[in-house]
Every structure is written in structure tokens, then in C-alpha cells.
Design brief:
heterodimer; A: mainly beta; 6-stranded mixed sheet; B: 115 residues; 7-stranded mixed sheet; 13 strands; 54% strand
């Protein structure tokens, strides 16, 4: 089993709709969680950090469920510019080493 | 503020050649890492460092060396390039504060092809 698993998608989303997807992690010692966005042939860019039960930033909401070991990302009022691959990232405290999920591809269409 | 700077952006090597991928950050971050990204494999950790003079292996370290003589620089050396090392390489840096690990900032990547 991979340490961090994501549905690869793609999630085809009408513009203006809401989309949500999950990421599961296997290591219960994981302490910090992040969502990154990666555009085609670009570097990953930090979207949100999740340190407690959740975080909200504008149209984006991340939730953490430690009991079931998953985090979710919800995007409201999707824009065409939200089309990207969203990477779930987990790390443990020691050494700040990141483990990446394979990414979830989101395509927002007019 | 430049952030994380990687050079070169593109490189073609012949099998057996060696080279160094450069990475520099100007944010005084203590943590630095090298990742490779291959289609269908996601990002995999090659080597990382928790501070100057301290490095450790990640998930896929074979064929690569690193050193961290300064806080700012974290070069990645390919000892004898192989076609399996064709990939996109990302350098990233981060810091820890207030008991929390903060997210990494990534460089723009180096696209390496080994022929």
C-alpha cells in the first residue's frame, strides 16, 4: 500500500461547480499535511497547509480526519484557472521529509 | 526575493557522464530536499538536508550524491548518468517554527535527458 494515496481523476468539473476529493495516508505518525497545486510542466506550489482539523482559504477548504487518516480538499465556485493537478503531501515531524501522493487531476470546463 | 533557484533548466547528458545540478535558496531555510518526478510515479525524495553539514538519503538515492556546505546551497551530483535518470528534478526548501513544519518552496525544476 502506498503511504499517500489519491484518486488520479480526472475530475471533470463545470465552471462554477463545487468539487471535492480525498487523500488517504497510512502513517499515523504523520503530523503535517499540505495540498500543493501543480500545473503542467511546472513546479508544485503550496496551496494550503493543514495542521489541525482543517483550514479554509477563500474558495478552498481542507479538512483533516486523523481517526480515518484522510484529508480532503474542496473547491467552491470552480474557475477555469483551477484546472491543475492537486498533490496531497504528508510529513512526520522528524527531518521534515515529505511524502507525495500521485496527484488528482482536475479539469474545469466552461 | 529569488526563492529557490535551480540551474540548469534543461540538460542532455550522454550515458556515463557526470554533472551537478545546482540549487540555491535565499530564504535562510534550514531544510532542503531534492525530488525527481517521473510520469506515473509522482515526486520521489532523492536526498534531503536538515541543515548545513547534515544530509541523509531519501527514497531513491542510488546514483546521486549531495553535500550541504552552506545553508543556501544544496547541489545534486549525478555520478555516472544512466537513461533511468531521465527525469524532472526539483529542489525545495522549508523551515520549522513554533513546533510546525512549514510547506516547502520548490524551484522551477531541471529537465534532464540521458541518452
Amino acid at each position: 500500500r502506498k503511504e499517500v494515496e489519491q484518486d488520479p481523476g480526472p475530475f471533470n468539473v463545470p465552471e462554477g461547480a463545487t468539487v471535492a476529493f480525498n487523500c488517504t495516508y497510512s502513517n499515523s505518525a504523520s503530523q503535517s499535511f499540505f495540498w500543493y497545486r501543480q500545473d503542467c510542466r511546472k513546479e508544485p506550489k503550496l496551496l494550503m497547509s493543514v495542521y489541525s482539523s482543517g483550514n479554509e482559504d477563500g474558495r478552498f477548504t481542507a479538512q483533516l480526519n486523523r481517526a480515518s487518516q484522510y484529508i480532503s480538499l474542496l473547491i467552491r465556485d470552480s474557475k477555469l484557472s483551477d484546472s491543475a493537478t492537486y498533490l496531497c503531501v504528508v510529513n512526520k515531524a522528524a527531518g521534515n521529509k515529505l511524502t507525495f501522493g500521485g496527484g488528482t487531476r482536475v479539469l474545469v470546463k466552461p | 526575493n529569488a526563492g529557490v533557484t535551480q540551474t540548469p533548466k534543461f540538460q542532455v547528458l550522454k550515458t556515463g557522464q557526470s554533472m551537478t545540478l545546482q540549487c540555491a535558496q535565499d530564504m535562510n531555510h534550514e531544510y532542503m530536499s531534492w525530488y525527481r518526478q517521473d510520469p506515473g510515479m509522482g515526486l520521489r525524495l532523492i536526498h534531503y538536508s536538515v541543515g548545513a553539514g547534515i544530509t541523509d538519503q531519501g527514497e531513491v538515492p542510488n546514483g546521486y550524491n549531495v553535500s550541504r556546505s552552506t545553508t543556501e546551497d544544496f547541489p545534486l551530483r549525478l555520478l555516472s548518468a544512466a537513461p533511468s535518470q531521465t527525469s524532472v528534478y526539483f529542489c525545495a526548501s522549508s523551515y520549522r517554527g513554533g513546533g510546525l513544519n512549514y510547506g516547502y518552496t520548490f524551484g522551477s525544476g531541471t529537465r534532464l535527458t540521458v541518452v
